[in-house]
Amino acid sequence: MAEKESVTIYDVAREVGCAPSTVSRAFSRPGRVSAATHAKVMEAARRLGYRVEAPDQQERTGRQGRLGVATPDLSNPYFAEVLTGMQEAAHAAEYLPILLDSGEDEDRERAALERSLEVVDGIVLTGTRLSDATLLQLAKRVPMMVLNRRVAGLDSVTPDYEHGMSQAMAHLESHQVRTVTYVAGPANSWSDGERWRSARTRAAEHGIRVNRIGPFPPTSRGGEDAYAELVESTRAAGEPLPEGVICYNDLQALGLLVAALRDGVRVPQELSVIGHDDIPLSRLVGAGLTTVAAPKREQGRAAVDRIVRRIRQPSSIKGPVEGALPVRLVVRGSTGPSGRR
């Protein structure tokens, strides 16, 4: 008895009533067809007994048309603007970004990444807290790119934290600020470690005494809690508040700023406050928040451009590509001459 002939994509195309090229895209790059068409093709393939290759057997380059985009907190305006830049670059490269929001939860982030590995061509991590070893293990399966962090062996794009902190300290020194507290961000945050390291180095260069409190969540509530701890610790030591505060990000800084104003502290005469990121809200509170402006959309676009090149032309890139984008200090009403002298 003759064996039954193998089912081909042409058979599936006739069953669905579409072109063979559409069936091919549905199998290899589902992001390039509608959800309804994809469902029809897969159902027809099942009925006819067409064997779809497992993801690991498919050609990796461009096979899905999707990019995983992992973010720790979608409600943070900083990440929202970075994602806007990513979406612009992904659209230009004909890729569909798939959002993975971890909610600042490492277990949730790891689970989301592992589930996405078979349905994306690459992953961009905008603020991961996972260990280097975990990321390198995941990167063996798909290309990965990290933002706001450096991992040996992976491509990365970060703001120039050291230059930003240098500008902040020079600005405070110009207003005769001599004592500064740095409010730390999340525990195990690479970017927080870089900011604190830069703060110590640059403060010493400008003759400023700096200390650190935290860690605190990168939220406005985190900033309020930081102010409460700052007040409690200085009172317990019988010392005045520092003349300046530099926060991990703008949300923290805004929370701390509002808490200080409610407490009757005169800003900036008694306390200068600096944030980091230049989110839209930083222009709207009081006389505005002085902040280190990071090129958020540019960072998002650069990340997608690089990972797409890594996916499409892997042999043209010999090693990890690391980039630092320029930042600038935006001066607003939350900083000024110290009124204590």
From TrEMBL:
SUPFAM superfamilies: lambda repressor-like DNA-binding domains, Periplasmic binding protein-like I. Residues 7-61 form the HTH lacI-type domain. This is LacI family transcriptional regulator. InterPro entries: HTH_LacI (IPR000843), LacI/GalR-like_sensor (IPR046335), Lambda_DNA-bd_dom_sf (IPR010982), Peripla_BP_I (IPR028082). One of its GO terms (molecular function) is transcription cis-regulatory region binding. Keywords: DNA-binding, Transcription, Transcription regulation. The lineage of its organism: Bacteria, Bacillati, Actinomycetota, Actinomycetes, Micrococcales. It comes from the Bacteria.
